[in-house]
Amino acid sequence: MATNTSKLSLSQLGQGDVFWATGFGLGFLRPAPGTWGSLGAVLLWLLWPASASLSVQVTLTLAYTGFSIWMVARLMQRLGVQDEPQIVADEIAGMWAALCFVEAEALQIAVAFGLFRLLDIAKPWPIGWLDRRYKNSFGVMADDVLAGLVAGAVTMLCLRLIG
Questions:
Q1: Which pTM does this prediction carry?
Q2: Range list of H helices, the chain
Q3: CA atoms within 13 A on the CB side of 131
Q4: Better-predicted residue by pLDDT, 162 or 72
Q5: Which of 22, 40, 77, 129 could form a disulfide with 27 if both were Cys (CB 3.0 to 4.6 A apart)?
Q6: Is 3 left (phi over 0), alpha (psi -120 to 50) or beta?
Q7: pLDDT digits over 25-77, tens only?
Q8: Is the dihedral of CA 26, 98, 128, 73 positive or negative?
Q9: CA distance 109 to 92
Q10: In the chain, domain spans
Q11: How many whole angstroms separate alpha carbon 105 and alpha carbon 156?
């Protein structure tokens, strides 16, 4: 029987780095915390960035990603954790990267979401390479952001080809 050996717990949610890295607590939801983080990312996106210009969307995604790299590094160092399942700031950044490519329309969002989750879980090259190569906060974030960029670009191309 597997035991939970994570150093992250819901009781730590009041700590700023835990709050941020777990996507405001979404990373503690089970099963599939990465999917919950991705769904939360879509909901947050629809509240504001979806209606903003592409330049604002990209700027917000880059700012969120940069701040998350710093916060995840802080958390990893402070608690001695690695890429724990509860850390979903990377899924939020990756999902936002995918959403920069699509319109705020249910089908487009659903396709981008599905592709992002598939790529994030399967980790084909070069996504998997990033995940294995960088065992720090940059690596935690980079593979998901790349998965999001690929998911968004593929979604956009497929939707354009279909018409």
A1: 0.94
A2: 16-21, 33-47, 54-79, 89-99, 106-122, 127-133, 137-162
A3: 17
A4: 72
A5: 22
A6: beta
A7: 999 999 999 999 999 999 999 998 899 999 999 999 999 999 999 999 999 99
A8: negative
A9: 14
A10: 12-162
A11: 12
